[in-house]
Amino acid sequence: MLFKSWKKSAMIIILIITMAFFGCKQAPQTINTIPMQITSFAFKNNETLPTKYTCEGENINPPLEISDTPENAKSLVLIIDDPDAPAGLWTHWTIWNIDPKTKEIKENSVPVNSKEGITSFKNTGYGAPCPPKNTGVHRYFFKIYAIDKTLDLPTSTTSESLYKKIENSILDKAEIIGLYAIK
Asked: Residue 148 — φ and ψ, nearest 5°?
């Protein structure tokens, strides 16, 4: 009888200690609690891209601002694409190995020491939005990824290959969408 009572008391004490320990334990701290962001002073999310940054203008990239990059990011990747293209997803620009401390990609520029890959235009560099006439308004996704490594890839790398190389290394991502239709 004494053994059963002692066993029951011990179990209650273990339960109380366990509840006290786990009930008071703090959640683990994350490195970055604010999501990464990409913005532009040239256009707002889901608004029309200025003509200057399209094939009807100067065919140059718009300025982009990047904020709240995770502290443990080793590099950034930028991919701009158009999911509304008649031929399917159309890539306008890929850049990788962007320094994670980069806060701005200036108009008509490429970040220092980064690499550009092949676009759907079959060349490297920024390919301005240029949707075919009578296909309506297209959406251009400017996507920035913070990843946990740098990439050793040739400039012949396509967006499909780039996505495969980063898919298991993404720490955070952000996007802004610009709209455009040929006038």
From this structure: -95, 20
Give the predicted TM-score (pTM) of the model.
Answer: 0.82
Return the residue matching tokens 């053994």: 3
Of 122, 168, 127, 170, nearest to 145 by C-alpha is 170
Question: Distances in Å between the alpha carbon of 182 and those of 50, 63, 120, 136?
Answer: 12, 21, 19, 8
CATH match for 37-180 among 3.90.280.10, 3.30.420.140, 2.60.40.1090, 3.40.640.10: 3.90.280.10
pLDDT at 2: 47
| Residue (of 58, 77, 87) closest to 159 by Cα position | 77
- Helix, strand, coil abundance in the chain, percent, nearest 5: 20, 30, 50
Question: Do residues 16 and 81 make contact, with C-beta atoms less than 8 angstroms apart?
Answer: no
